[in-house]
């Protein structure tokens, strides 16, 4: 029975005990099957043929409105209370359920197709001593499989052997993390000796004990036992499912995790489901509507009881009551009858219409050519369809800096060597000359290995290197040796570098052009061409970079036998480890670093140390013990690294430029005018972040003050925050102003906004932010930060980014958006209400976790100011009109109850009730919700203040909902009493009576339809041919259906179903009927016109003012001109930011290097050198000192 349920996708039995350790044996399926490990089949679908109907219905009925209508259908099947035919509920309910089910079925069929395609891929598996082709789904844990070049990795494998030297393999992880650069893995020596010998592989009986399945892509812990020898396993021995084998002829691997246990599938869990503020409001309103429905039904039931006791006896002669039916019981039945009658206050078609609107607005984003980035062939993409209107309510934007505001394409710009700064051009007076595209470049033609794309403008540095300056040559020697870059020889003899980060690539390329060319590496050596001579250094150790160390070092032995440690890293950390003799040089270098930081450059300090042979031998033994430790390996290695990285000699500093993206300052300026507050959360140095803030118009000179919070203790941070708050608002109280929010639920404390007179900025360091985010200080930090126009948090970790976003989400009644481009931004993107990913230089992790994506930060203003604002405006108009037309429809029933003895008789024809929301009024409101716009996109950019009403929820809120109800109540009174009075005792032109129920029903429903369509016309701002077609087409369909259903033919065929025979012909040919329709329609819209006219005259909104200005301008406004930011010279400090990932050091030392040329990788540049540039007559004359004494 359990197996049958499992085949249907239903779990049975108790919960399975979580796996604590995985134990498997190679080539022993019986042993591995005993542990009941999952096979390699994946199943991402939600349903199968048997479970689709019950599970899908169960999911849909979890939506409150659907469950309500199902209960309503049950009530209609009870004859005693049913006042409507069953089809009035069944038809709409089936239509809604069927449309949703069809969508879900289509999605799931696509998932099944994708699963089958993957599960039926073929791979060679070693079975009974032979390689056999098997489907992926049949692969078991413990199997040995063979992969060939360009094949996908079948499962999570322990690499056993490969065709490459030292058992290396090269893999591409694009499907796993979006990164296209190749990564290197290496097998253990004990398994690498197996090679491709099938007999040896078949006899292999190694046992693996490792961690249970988990979603950590960057870590793996385990041991391999072979013949009594135990070897430790880490992530560098594992090939993960989702990777692709590249530049490797073949490799063999042992399946460790299969199917759902693979790290790829463990990471494909459901993302956090995000809902808009309108969704939350809708849930509250639906509950209120239920309460209001019960209130109306109670009033009508009480009226029924009173009427039965006072007037019912007069009708007993010809309407005898059933046995035992007394007034209280009759009132009870009437209550449920009116629950059925008045069910339209909960519109079943609302949710379907909302999904259609959201889908359409999502397509507008995908189709927007103005958000398409041609150089990278990247269109904008709406990765979700449920958050579009939330884009029109953003109050806070949290942005990464590197790769988001900047291009993340690094160029070597300046450097400081032995106290002298290089990179600036000076005139005869010693003043800096601005470098432009026309400025002459340094000629590197003397270096045949130079990168032709590299450019530098200061010839002094080249002369220093070529003239044999020891310090300059040692500077570039360090850049050529201290890195984890992988070299690649191209077919044309060129050289290509594969760097983990753009910074490293820029520094190694700079060393290459200045005569120190990194050519090749092995696990034990680095080969470089130094000023034309090939020199091979023995690589003894790589002290790798990580997020805590923020530096890396290499220890090499020169051909002369000299031992040297080269180190580069953040200046603050390098300075702490310098020898005391470097104090004078450190002061000068610090001055240069400040100048570089002021220009927004990313800086590194460079140092070296000569090592003693005996000391290094003892240190090396301790290093080996730490690197092979099974417990606390990282901590022990950090301690060993710390021991040797001290008493360093300072060489200088490098400065790399990361330019702003196009349009960033203009975008931030526009968003600021829309009252959107922008916070930059970056790992960069404070000075760099601050300078970028000024460059992109976040921080401005006209701000009254920019506060710097850099306290090192909790008390210092608290005092700085309080002092800043008092400066901005001296009368602010120490207790934050709380706003009690929440309705029909748990109340949460929200901090209200506090207004300040001037504009302020805030810059806070990561260590200070750690104190500010503590429980007792976070409210103080939040109050102070929210008073500021711009906030920059620097030196922050990915966790701190998410914590800042969560704090604002929790404590501010505002919608947040996070935007980034790297893996370190994923937590922030997922934490915000809306996450935006930029397709940049740091892979696709941010895009894969985002709700919207595009290629450039500047597209954000169009996403928010145009698409977001229009989506919010359209959704709010739709909801207001939808509730208006449905409440008006329902209130007419309510008033009619007082004139029909509370008998629960319907005022309309049953077919009109059925088709009202499905056909007669569905398309016109959809047309408005898909095409309406108050002003076009150019005026949206021209007047960003139009965005502010969305932040304040002015277009749809509880108050707007109450106004909608009051409007509906008024309209329903007009639509009931005027037709009632007009048709009372009325006769036709020929004297025949038309004062009957059916004629009144036809008149009431026609007046209703005309009135709500006229209201739609008043609400529509932007008319298109589609709107016109939907509006007039719906009216035409109504009259066509009415005359058809009320015809003699339909009555003769379905007598009981279509009883309104001849009513349309009898009534709609009378002038007084059309006059009544006209009168009711005018009276319904007249107060609306009067109110809007007076409101626009006395209290015009920003929309009214802009639309008036649009009408005044006869010609359309010109497009906003693009302004190009000139190169800015600034003295504001900036600095270097490290990536949040580990380096390649362990791969380098263990032999995971690029030996073979990767022919499939495109060249970074061609060997065709650009024509040499010489100094023209118009070029400025360069001032260069003749001699300068080096600093001791």
TrEMBL record:
It catalyses: ATP + H2O + phospholipidSide 1 = ADP + phosphate + phospholipidSide 2. The chain crosses the membrane at residues 67-97, 281-302, 329-352, 878-899, 911-931, 964-983, 1003-1025, 1037-1061, 1073-1095. It is a multi-pass membrane protein. One of its GO terms (molecular function) is magnesium ion binding. GO terms for cellular component: plasma membrane; trans-Golgi network. ATP binds at residues 400-402, 504, 545, 568, 602, 682-684, 795, 801, 824-825. GO terms for biological process: Golgi organization; phospholipid translocation. Keywords: ATP-binding, Lipid transport, Magnesium, Membrane, Metal-binding, Nucleotide-binding, Translocase, Transmembrane, Transmembrane helix, Transport. It is an enzyme of class 7 (translocase). The keyword Transmembrane applies. Its EC number is 7.6.2.1. Residues 847-1101 form the P-type ATPase C-terminal domain. It comes from the Eukaryota. It is found in: Endomembrane system; Membrane. Residues 25-90 form the P-type ATPase N-terminal domain. Mg(2+) binds at residues 400, 402, 821, 825. Its cofactor is Mg(2+). The active site is at 400 (4-aspartylphosphate intermediate). The keyword Disulfide bond does not apply. PROSITE patterns: ATPASE_E1_E2. InterPro entries: ATPase_P-typ_cyto_dom_N, ATPase_P-typ_P_site, ATPase_P-typ_TM_dom_sf, ATPase_P-typ_transduc_dom_A_sf, HAD-like_sf, HAD_sf, P-type_ATPase_IV, P-type_ATPase_N. Belongs to the cation transport ATPase (P-type) (TC 3.A.3) family. Type IV subfamily. PANTHER family: PHOSPHOLIPID-TRANSPORTING ATPASE (PTHR24092:SF177), PROBABLE PHOSPHOLIPID-TRANSPORTING ATPASE (PTHR24092). NCBIfam families: ATPase-Plipid (TIGR01652), ATPase_P-type (TIGR01494). This is Phospholipid-transporting ATPase.
